[in-house]
TrEMBL record:
<dbReference type="GO" id="GO:0000287">
    <property type="term" value="F:magnesium ion binding"/>
</dbReference>
<keyword id="KW-0963">Cytoplasm</keyword>
<feature type="domain" description="Aminoacyl-transfer RNA synthetases class-II family profile">
    <location>
        <begin position="117"/>
        <end position="338"/>
    </location>
</feature>
<dbReference type="GO" id="GO:0004826">
    <property type="term" value="F:phenylalanine-tRNA ligase activity"/>
</dbReference>
<comment type="subunit">
    <text>Tetramer of two alpha and two beta subunits.</text>
</comment>
<keyword id="KW-0648">Protein biosynthesis</keyword>
<keyword id="KW-0460">Magnesium</keyword>
<dbReference type="InterPro" id="IPR004529">
    <property type="entry name" value="Phe-tRNA-synth_IIc_asu"/>
</dbReference>
<keyword id="KW-0436">Ligase</keyword>
<dbReference type="GO" id="GO:0006432">
    <property type="term" value="P:phenylalanyl-tRNA aminoacylation"/>
</dbReference>
<keyword id="KW-0030">Aminoacyl-tRNA synthetase</keyword>
<dbReference type="InterPro" id="IPR022911">
    <property type="entry name" value="Phe_tRNA_ligase_alpha1_bac"/>
</dbReference>
<dbReference type="Pfam" id="PF02912">
    <property type="entry name" value="Phe_tRNA-synt_N"/>
</dbReference>
<dbReference type="GO" id="GO:0016740">
    <property type="term" value="F:transferase activity"/>
</dbReference>
<dbReference type="GO" id="GO:0005737">
    <property type="term" value="C:cytoplasm"/>
</dbReference>
<dbReference type="InterPro" id="IPR010978">
    <property type="entry name" value="tRNA-bd_arm"/>
</dbReference>
<keyword id="KW-0067">ATP-binding</keyword>
Length: 339
């Protein structure tokens, strides 16, 4: 038994010394001291040893286990120290060097303008509603009083998925979907991305953003429209801002108008920013056409309403005095960091 234990001890010491990694060292521990290890097997065989010899054999087994455990622990500490020393040598940090600067991002000019518009209308009791960008031709055109042969459809030519599906040209379809639910009254704005077959230049893009607004209730008049948009313009551009409504044509509203605001740079006197006019166009609006109400299941003899729509990029260009729409999408850090 003494010779057997000495052989186990010698084998363990040899394998420990030959170990070149912590994983290998653990394998040696399991091989000799684990549940199925060589030294554990000796302990299990002690039942066959005469009673008078068991104390002596037990002491020899414990001495062998202790010697192996001590060498394992010493070797483990040496290996861990060697690994740490190598890591420290390879990962030297010069605390005198300047720290890496963290560049935090911030909101895009479009996002800043959108949040400002939403804040104003939510403060007036409106809700913000979103809808699909890929829309049925019916919602995008027909339900807005633009049948297939209507000349206004050519002005809003878009990208067709098939004969019945298009990339929406405005967020007006969201208004139709809300009206169809029949939950009146309605006070909502619908921001979102829209698409038109336009060439890219300083003021046009095939993909841009719009904010459409809609109010449906009893006894709504053009005076409500004027008062709402006048308050919106003052909150967005300043308390001294004046508004002017010019007659216009939209197939989904009647009467229709375009809204101009007094130039907030020159106070309406005329300058380079407003091209000497003293006024700046910002949106289109009008009273919801009775045909649109009927197609959405609303009785125009009981309910009336108004609608308006503006380009988000146009609001951002005016508010931050940007002269080229393409700057909003070129991701030039020199431009974006100004906001």
């Amino acid at each position: 038994m003494k010779e057997m234990l000495q052989k186990i001890k010698d084998d363990a010491f040899r394998q420990i010394e030959e170990s070149d990694a912590l994983e290998k060292l653990n394998e040696v521990r399991v091989s000799f001291l684990g549940k199925k290890g060589e030294l554990t097997a000796v302990l299990k065989s002690m039942k066959d040893i005469p009673a008078e010899e068991k104390p002596m054999v037990g002491q020899m087994v414990n001495d062998t286990r202790q010697a192996i455990e001590v060498l394992l622990e010493e070797t483990k500490k040496k290996m861990e120290k060697a690994v740490l020393d190598a890591k420290l040598k390879n990962e030297v940090i010069d605390v005198t060097l300047p720290a890496n600067k963290s560049n935090l991002g911030h909101r895009h000019p479009n996002t800043i303008a959108l949040e400002e518009v939403e804040r104003i209308f939510v403060g007036m009791g409106y809700e913000v509603v979103e809808g699909p960008e890929v829309e049925y031709d019916y919602y995008n055109f027909e339900a807005l009083n633009i049948p297939a042969n209507h000349p206004a459809k050519d002005e809003q030519d878009t990208f067709y998925i098939n004969s019945n599906m298009v990339l929406r040209t405005a967020t007006s379809p969201v208004q139709v979907r809300v009206m169809e639910k029949g939950q009146l009254p309605i006070r909502m704005i619908a921001p979102g991305r829209v698409f038109r077959a336009d060439e890219v230049d300083a003021t046009h893009s095939p993909s841009f953003h719009q904010i459409e607004g809609l109010v449906i209730d009893k006894n709504i008049t053009f005076a409500d429209l004027k008062g709402t948009l006048a308050e919106f313009a003052k909150q967005l551009f300043g308390a001294e801002t004046k508004v002017k409504f010019r007659p216009h044509y939209f197939p989904f509203t009647e009467p229709s108008a375009e809204l101009d605001v007094s130039c907030y740079k020159c106070g309406g006197k005329g300058c380079r920013f407003c091209k000497g006019e003293g006024w700046i166009e910002i949106l289109g609006c009008g009273m919801v056409h009775p045909n649109v109400l009927r197609m959405s299941g609303i009785d125009p003899d009981v309910y009336t309403g108004f609608a308006f729509g503006m380009g988000l990029e146009r609001i951002a260009l005016l508010k931050y005095e940007i002269d080229d729409m393409r700057l909003l999408y070129e991701n030039d850090y020199r431009f974006l960091k100004q906001f």
